Amino acid sequence: MAAPPAEQVHDHVAVARDVVKSYGSGDGAVTALRGVSATFRRGRFTAIMGPSGSGKSTFLHCMAGLDTVSSGSVLIGGVDITGLSRTRLTKLRRDRLGFVFQAFNLLPLLTAEENIRLTGRLGKRRADQRWFDTVVDALGLRERLGHRPGELSGGQQQRVAVARALLTRPEVLFADEPTGNLDSASGAEVLEFLRTAVDVYGQTVIMVTHDPVAAAHADRVLFLADGMIVHELPHPTIDAVHAAMRRLEG
Ligand SMILES: Nc1ncnc2c1ncn2[C@@H]1O[C@H](COP(=O)(O)OP(=O)(O)OP(=O)(O)O)[C@@H](O)[C@H]1O
């Protein structure tokens, strides 16, 4: 897929240009990404799929500034993050990006409310109370705000993690297997909320998943194989995602 011309970049909240990522050196070197270019428009939900080891997590981590690229560039909101110092990158991640992982990564001694407010407190952007209330109510967490993570179900913990990630109204919400640890009913609740966050609140979501049901909540699916984007599926249905995965897994 060719990189977009420069004048189109401002329409895109995240852009990858010919991203190559290798781990290690010499005989042991592994090239996880072999020149990946992709654009992500504001207010859209993209799922990233592909066989195990195809580079999905590596791609997400490079896009989110959690890992460095070997060559190529990544732009977030027009800023080339591949050239940023570690300090500026940390600040950009904290102020402009949101993260949800398979493991909920909540602080066990803090209540749900304290966990949700944590990122806002670390950064400069103080979340307004109205947005806090909107997110908490939409995620059905109102009655759980005083509970610690150990007192919540997996689905509730992940909903707290999603609320935390959205509290700063990030330019992009990155999710790595957000439903991987959840039963299908709890997973569906999280996915439906991500869909709402895109449709109602205009958020941008980029999500890695193994699950065709999860991917079918997205506006499009990008398929990776052997470190390259090999297919793009707009308006995915569960059946179409299954069929594409079957072709890739051969
Ligand atoms: N830190 C690392 N050091 C060395 N190799 C790595 C590292 N991280 C990933 N790799 C390799 O890069 C390739 C892509 O890995 P990645 O985790 O991105 O794939 P994935 O598609 O997310 O896989 P899975 O679906 O199994 O989670 C694999 O060959 C993997 O072994």
TrEMBL record:
Gene3D superfamilies: P-loop containing nucleotide triphosphate hydrolases (3.40.50.300)
Organism classification: Bacteria, Bacillati, Actinomycetota, Actinomycetes, Streptosporangiales
Native species: Actinomadura livida
Keyword Electron transport: no
Protein name: ABC transporter ATP-binding protein
Annotated keywords: ATP-binding, Nucleotide-binding, Transport
Alphabetical list of Pfam families matching this protein: ABC_tran
Chain ranges of the ABC transporter domain: 14-250
Gene Ontology molecular function: ATP binding
Keyword NAD: no
